[in-house]
Design brief:
- It is a single chain.
- The chain is mostly beta strands.
- It has one domain.
- The strands form two sheets. Strands 2-5-6-1-9-10 form a six-stranded mixed β-sheet.
- A hairpin with a 5-residue loop joins strand 7 and strand 8.
- The chain starts with 16 loop residues before the first strand and ends with a strand.
- This is Lipoprotein.
């Protein structure tokens, strides 16, 4: 009979990864004019959202957990025509609270549960990001 004290230790499970995904929407027109849905688009002059802007996620201690650059915008909407920029990447999921910064905007605080549901924003007329 084998002594349980002499059994090989089990491997420590790796840390959970938390998928962070979302989108930033910029209004293009209120009359339906603009590119067809799914076609490339660029935000209007004066918008702070742009392709190549960095999305950064840090833990509560300020340690960077992951970054990604926004890709090209794609048109959405029918009457309200929008330009949508999406992001999706994974970070270590040990923390309960996270801070996300989109280049050009102030940092925003989120819980693990907020992130699991997905993050959607729109750029306001005042040049801030608001939850959608």
């Amino acid at each position: 009979m084998e002594d349980p004290k002499e059994a090989a230790p089990t491997a420590t499970p790796s840390a959970d990864r938390l998928a962070i995904s979302g989108a930033i929407t910029v209004l293009l027109s209120t009359d339906g004019k603009g590119p067809d849905i799914g076609k490339p688009c660029a935000p209007p002059t004066g918008s702070k959202v742009k392709a190549g802007a960095e999305v950064r996620v840090t833990d509560s201690e300020g340690k960077t957990l992951g970054t990604q650059k926004l890709g090209a915008g794609h048109a959405g909407g029918s009457t309200l025509k929008t330009c949508n920029f999406s992001f999706s990447f994974k970070v270590p999921g040990e923390a309960e609270n996270y801070e996300m910064t989109v280049e050009g905007f102030p940092p925003m605080q989120y819980t693990r549960e907020d992130i699991r549901r997905g993050l959607s924003f729109y750029e306001t007329e005042q040049g801030t990001l608001a939850p959608q």
